[in-house]
Write a structure and sequence with these properties.
This protein has 128 residues and is of the alpha+beta class. It has 3 helices and 6 strands; from the N terminus they run ααββαββββ. The chain has a 6-stranded mixed β-sheet with strand order 2-1-6-5-4-3.
Length: 128
């Protein structure tokens, strides 16, 4: 059951990015979130929300696939493949990235506390 919850959260993350929906990140990402985006920039929760809301990216599709979840008591590690198609800075971009999220289970449910995004070749501009 917990594995299914994490898989659903990973799919919801991709959908929230596609829709530039910051509400999802406010609800699911922990206040102490720390992440690294595809160009190496480190972000906290508020910075990530700003990137999602104001990236200038417009997606036709953004999906999470090949989702793998490892559970360790109240901690989960999720890895997946993000595939997106859209426009960024006026150019058509098709990207794939490997992503890792660390989740902690609390009385309020699963929260992402850390994340790492790694672009796959060919490399192109992308806000995340």
């Amino acid at each position: 059951m917990q594995r299914v919850e994490i898989i659903n959260l990973e799919k919801e993350t991709a959908r929230a990015i596609m829709l530039n929906n910051a509400t999802f990140f406010r609800r699911v990402y922990g206040e102490d979130f720390s992440g690294t985006l595809s160009q190496g920039q480190t972000v906290d929760k508020n910075q990530l929300i700003n990137v999602v809301q104001s990236s200038g990216a417009h997606y036709q599709s953004f999906t999470a696939s090949d989702i793998q979840v490892k559970l360790f008591q109240e901690t989960a590690i999720a890895t997946c493949l993000w595939s997106s198609r859209g426009t960024y800075q006026g150019r058509q971009v098709d990207t794939q990235m490997r992503v890792m999220h660390v989740y902690i289970n609390s009385p309020r449910g699963w929260h992402v506390v850390a994340g790492q995004t790694t672009p796959l070749p060919p490399y192109g501009p992308h806000p995340l």
